[in-house]
Specification:
Length: 342
C-alpha cells in the first residue's frame, strides 16, 4: 500500500520533531520515519540523562526531557510515526513528487521530503570477525526478536553496556547457558545490573569472559559452532553457541542518503539559508544533516531552520498562495490548529 501525503520527514530527532510542529502550524500534516524504535535521535540514543543548557528559555533541560516536551508540543498535529525503519529509496517521479521506500516496505508518494536525518541512520555496530558475515541474521543477531525461541539454547552475548547486561539478565533461566563476552573487566552498564549479573555467575548457566572475538568456527558438519575468542594473554578459546547476540551500541550511517543525487559536502547535505532546500526542489534538510556557510550543529539552529523550511514547504505545495506569518499568541487560526481556546 502506498501512503499519499504532502510531507515526509526523515528522522525523529529534536529537529525532525520540531519540524512537525512548524508544519502543523501551517496545516501541513507529516509522516515521520526513523530507523530507531524510539523518537529523540541523538538526545534519546546517546545522552538521555545529560542536561542541556542552551535551549532558549529553558535554563537547564534533560535531553530526554526535551524530547518528551517536544512530543507534547507536537501532539495537537497528530504526526504519523513509522519507527524502526530506515528510508532506503527516494526517487523523484515525472510529476515532481517523490516515491520513498523504507526497509520495512512502507511506501510513500509525497509532494515534499524533509531530511532531518542528523548524522545518518543509527545502525548496530557490526561484528567484523572472520566468517561472521555469512552467519548474520542466521546465528548472529543485533537484537532479540523473540526471547521465547531462545529457551534451552546456548547463547553468547557480546557487549558491556546496558543492552548486553539487560538481555543477559532477561534470558538467564530461559537459555540453557549464557556466556557474556566483553573486552574489559569494567562494564558501562548500570552498576545494579552488573552486580546482579555477577551474583548469578555459576560457571554453568552463566559465565563471563574477557577477550575479543577473532572468528566464527563451524561444526564438523558445517553448522554454526560458536566464536573463537582471544583473551588478554593471547590465549585462544572456543566458546560454543547456538545463537550470538551483539550489543556493541549503534553508530550513525549516512547510508542511502548519499545516493539520492543531492549535493553533498563532507557527508552533509548542502542547502540554501532562505528555504533550507537542497539541490533538488521539494527536498529540504534541517538540523545536523545540512550544511551552509556558518552552520553550527546545535539544536537551536535546527529549530530555526525548521521554521523557515516549513514556510518553504508551504510555498512549494501552494505556489500561488501567499504565506502569511501569524502569531501563535493572537491568531484565532493558530489557536484552532493548536486546539487551544482563548
Ligand atoms: C553527547 C552530546 C551532547 C550534546 N549536547 C548538545 C547541547 O548541549 N546543545 C545542543 O544544541 N546540541 C547538543 N548536541 C548536538 C545535538 O544532539 C544535535 O545537534 C541534535 O541531536 C541534532 O538533531 P537532528 O534532529 O538534526 O538529528 P539527530 O538527533 O541525529 O536525529 C536524526 C535521526 O534521523 C534518523 N535517520 C537518519 N537517517 C535515516 C534514514 N535513512 N531513515 C530513517 N531514519 C533516519 C536517525 O536514526 C536519528 O534518529 C549534543 C550531542 C551529543 C552527542
Amino acid at each position: 500500500m502506498t501512503i499519499k501525503t504532502d510531507s515526509v520527514i526523515i528522522g525523529a530527532g529534536p529537529c525532525g520533531l520540531f519540524q512537525v510542529f512548524e508544519l502543523g502550524l501551517l496545516d501541513i500534516q507529516a509522516h515521520v520515519v526513523d530507523s530507531l524504535s524510539q523518537v529523540g535521535g541523538q538526545c534519546s540514543e546517546l545522552y538521555p540523562d545529560k542536561p542541556i543548557y542552551d535551549i532558549p528559555a529553558l535554563p537547564v533541560c534533560g535531553a530526554q526531557e526535551l524530547i518528551d516536551r517536544l512530543m507534547e508540543q507536537i501532539s495537537p498535529f497528530n504526526p504519523q510515526f513509522h519507527l524502526g525503519q530506515t528510508v532506503t529509496r527516494l526517487e523523484r517521479s515525472d510529476t515532481g513528487r517523490f516515491v520513498l521506500e523504507t526497509s520495512a516496505g512502507t511506501r510513500f508518494d509525497t509532494a515534499t521530503v524533509i531530511l532531518a536525518a542528523g548524522l545518518g541512520a543509527f545502525q548496530p555496530r557490526r561484528l567484523r570477525a572472520a566468517g561472521a558475515e555469512e552467519w548474520e541474521a542466521r546465528n548472529i543477531h543485533y537484537r532479540v526478536r523473540d526471547p521465547e525461541k531462545l529457551a534451552g539454547m546456548g547463547i553468547v552475548i557480546l557487549g558491556g553496556g546496558d543492552s548486553a547486561l539487560d538481555w543477559t539478565l532477561a534470558l538467564h533461566g530461559k537459555a540453557s547457558r549464557i556466556t557474556l563476552v566483553h573486552r574489559r573487566a569494567e562494564y558501562r552498564a548500570q552498576p545494579a545490573s552488573v552486580n546482579k549479573m555477577k551474583s548469578l555467575i555459576d560457571g554453568d548457566t552463566l559465565e563471563e569472559f574477557q577477550g575479543h572475538v577473532r572468528s566464527v568456527f563451524t561444526t564438523e558438519g558445517g553448522a554454526f559452532g560458536g566464536l573463537e575468542i582471544v583473551d588478554a594473554e593471547s590465549e585462544h578459546h572456543k566458546v560454543e553457541a547456538d545463537e550470538v547476540f551483539v550489543f556493541w551500541g549503534l553508530s550513525p550511517n549516512l547510508g542511502p542518503i548519499a545516493d539520492w543525487g543531492l549535493d553533498i559536502d563532507k557527508r552533509q547535505v548542502k542547502v540554501d539559508t532562505e528555504k533550507f532546500q537542497t539541490s533538488v526542489p521539494g527536498i529540504f534538510a534541517v538540523g545536523d544533516i545540512n550544511t551552509y556557510p556558518g552552520k553550527k550543529k546545535l539544536i537551536l539552529s535546527g529549530f530555526h531552520e525548521a521554521a523557515l523550511a516549513a514556510f518553504a514547504v508551504q510555498q512549494h505545495l501552494h505556489p500561488d498562495q501567499k504565506v502569511r506569518l501569524q502569531y501563535t499568541t493572537t491568531s484565532p487560526l493558530m489557536h484552532k490548529r493548536l486546539g487551544v481556546s482563548q
